[in-house]
């Protein structure tokens, strides 16, 4: 037998938890991505640029350097429906979210 009182209490709690998870995952910034980008070795930075280039977000040289082209490419990526679809469900640490953003296009997990 279903207890209606428990359902009425549980439903708002579930919505609150879902909202909190979405709020936590929203809003990775280009500045956060830049900080992580600059901490990585040149090969990883170049791999990130290749991923951005492969999806048409980046048209600059693959040099592993952060510049206006890389920044704009990450702005476009973060605004894209594909990124938003995946990032809206992220509930792990902020640092992990930023790292996943950095290498988002280099992972089969986010196809």
UniProtKB/TrEMBL annotation:
Keyword annotations: Signal
Keyword Signal: yes
Keyword Signal: yes
Protein name, per record: Peptidoglycan binding-like domain-containing protein
Leader sequence segment: 1-23
């Amino acid at each position: 037998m279903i207890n209606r009182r428990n359902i009425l209490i549980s439903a708002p709690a579930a919505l609150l938890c879902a909202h909190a998870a979405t709020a936590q995952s929203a809003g990775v910034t280009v500045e956060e991505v830049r900080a992580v980008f600059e901490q990585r070795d040149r090969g990883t930075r170049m791999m990130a640029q290749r991923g951005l280039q492969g999806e048409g977000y980046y048209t600059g040289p693959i040099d592993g350097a952060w510049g206006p082209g890389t920044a704009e490419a990450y702005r476009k990526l973060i605004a894209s429906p594909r990124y938003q679809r995946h990032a809206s469900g992220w509930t792990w640490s902020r640092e992990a979210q930023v790292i996943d953003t950095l290498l988002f296009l280099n992972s089969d997990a986010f196809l």
